[in-house]
Specification:
It is an enzyme of class 1 (oxidoreductase). The protein is of the alpha/beta class and about 450 residues long. It is built from 18 helices and 14 strands. It has 2 domains: about 200 residues, NAD(P)-binding Rossmann-like Domain (Rossmann fold); about 220 residues, Rossmann fold. Helix 1 crosses helix 3. The termini are far apart. It binds 1,4-dihydronicotinamide adenine dinucleotide.
Length: about 450
């Protein structure tokens, strides 16, 4: 029986390796993490992350061929293939601060593998890393390993999107496996391809050299984020001219060279990856003495910041140039629908802005815990601000009671079908709704009596 160990039981390691276990009953998968609370949650009825369909996958194989544990060394020793799926956040200090990826977790996991392995392993980079990280991993492994043990390194970047992780993993657009183009490297590549071949059609399993594979992940995220910043830049022009960004996106998307996906304007992208990976690409470009290339990609992130600040300013302007002591209800705190993840969520930036303008804020999100909202906000603002100005409410109607304005920041489906007559009746007048996700029926809302403001539209 093939044994797989995954180091890092996060948003990627958890779902990815749970799906491998689900699709490969003949493979034993152990997902390990240093975080005891996270592992306890994976072993409980209340999984640490919310993803539609994930409970079914985990509950079907947990205890059979899927295990969650903090015994990192034991899992490394037993495994044939080891996924390294630890976090690679943007560095906060030192060289490259604010841009470069912090590879401390990748390095520490790699050193652990070298120290404890008693047999040869295939080590798979699952984390998103800068180009040529595999080379550093190989050097560390070879310098620290015991005699006679061989390590082959593969790059196997993950393309799942949070909120659709399970369907993305079940039916991936492609699986990318990069390796050194040596006979051993190609053999390792084939071993991993054989695991995926249990459910992924062969033509979707793409093999290439290590550096292309590493760079492809950064490139894919940069291109996706660039599309969002492009449509958001157009949304500003729409607001200034009377064009409608949904109509513009529809017209452009019908061109088969452009395509309709990922052309939805919004308050700005969030999530743990887009910004981090683009900044990583910017840093890489600068390190390669390509300042024009760096500046080009940096603009994608700058446009995203501009969109958030533009929307915040529009809100204040429409609320008669002041929101001090006004009641603002925030619908949605997750960075997008169908996830409880708030990393880099636009809501954090906007709530912080409202706090500075001394508004009273009530926040409703169907999937984000109170503690998470508190942690995100108090990271930027003093704890007292949270106590005095912010309420986290578990019912959207309650959250909107007495509000001057509702601001929609996450595109949860349930926001489309709320009883807005009831909500309107309980709000201060004039009652405003700011739709930062273009999901509401503005005509219907205006008929009820709301003042409606939508990104990329003037009517
Ligand atoms: P995460 O922060 O949710 O999970 C990482 C886990 O690794 C944490 O639970 C942490 O405790 C654990 N960890 C760190 N060092 C460890 C060590 N030495 N030994 C054992 N456990 C250790 O991060 P997430 O979101 O799962 O991301 C992981 C990687 O995948 C990142 O490089 C990210 O860029 C990439 N990625 C993330 C996607 C996403 O949607 N979240 C999508 C595609 C790639």
């Amino acid at each position: 029986m093939t044994k797989i160990c995954c180091i890092g039981a996060g948003y990627v390691g958890g779902p990815t390796c749970a799906v491998i276990a689900y699709k490969c009953p003949n493979v034993q998968v152990t997902i390990v993490d240093l975080n005891q609370a996270r592992i306890d949650a994976w072993n409980s009825g209340n999984l640490p992350i919310y993803e539609p369909g994930l409970d079914e996958v985990v509950f079907a194989c947990r205890g059979k061929n899927l295990f969650f544990s903090t015994e990192v060394d034991k899992a490394i020793v037993e495994a044939d293939l080891i996924f390294v799926s630890v976090n690679t956040p943007t560095k906060k200090s030192g060289i490259g601060a604010g841009f470069a990826a912090d590879l401390a977790y990748v390095e520490s996991a790699t050193r652990r593998i070298a120290q404890v392995a008693t047999s040869s392993k295939i080590v798979i980079e699952k984390s998103t890393v800068p180009c040529r990280t595999a080379e550093s991993m190989r050097t560390i492994l070879e310098a620290n390993s015991h005699d006679g043990i061989r390590f082959d390194i593969l790059s196997n970047p993950e393309f799942l999107a949070e909120g659709t992780a399970v369907p993305d993993l079940m039916k991936p657009d492609r699986v990318l496996i990069g390796s050194l183009q040596t006979p051993e490297g190609i053999k390792a590549q084939q071993a991993l391809a054989a695991v995926y071949a249990n459910w992924v059609p062969k033509e979707k399993i793409i093999t290439m050299n290590l550096w292309s594979s590493e760079l492809s992940k950064l490139a894919a995220n940069a291109l996706l984020a660039q599309r969002i910043s492009s449509i958001n830049a157009l949304s500003a022009i729409c607001e200034a001219t009377g064009a409608d960004v949904d109509e513009v996106a529809y017209a452009c998307g019908l061109d088969t060279r452009i395509g309709p996906k990922f052309l939805k304007a919004s308050v700005g992208f969030g999530g743990s990856c887009f910004q981090k990976d683009i900044l990583n690409l910017v840093y890489l470009s600068e390190s390669l003495h390509l300042p024009e290339v760096a500046a080009y990609w940096k603009q994608v992130v700058d446009m995203n910041e501009y969109q958030k600040s533009r929307f915040s300013q529009r809100i204040v302007k429409r609320l008669f140039n002041t929101i001090t002591n006004k009641n603002i209800t925030v619908f949605g705190f997750a960075f997008k629908k169908n996830t409880g993840d708030t990393r880099e969520s636009a809501a954090i930036t906007l709530v912080n802005y409202f706090l500075q303008e001394r508004a009273n804020i009530s926040i409703y999100d169907p999937k984000v815990d109170d503690d998470q909202i508190r942690a995100d906000i108090t990271e930027l603002a003093p704890v007292e601000a949270f106590e005095k100005q912010i309420k986290v409410v578990h019912d959207p109607y309650q959250a909107a009671k007495g509000a001057d304005a509702i601001v929609v920041l996450t595109e949860w489906d349930e926001f489309k079908t709320l009883n807005y007559e009831q909500i309107y009746a309980g709000m201060n007048k004039p009652a405003f709704i700011f739709d930062g996700r273009l999901i509401l029926d503005s005509k219907k809302l205006r008929d009820i009596g709301f003042q409606v403001e939508v990104i990329g539209k003037t009517l």
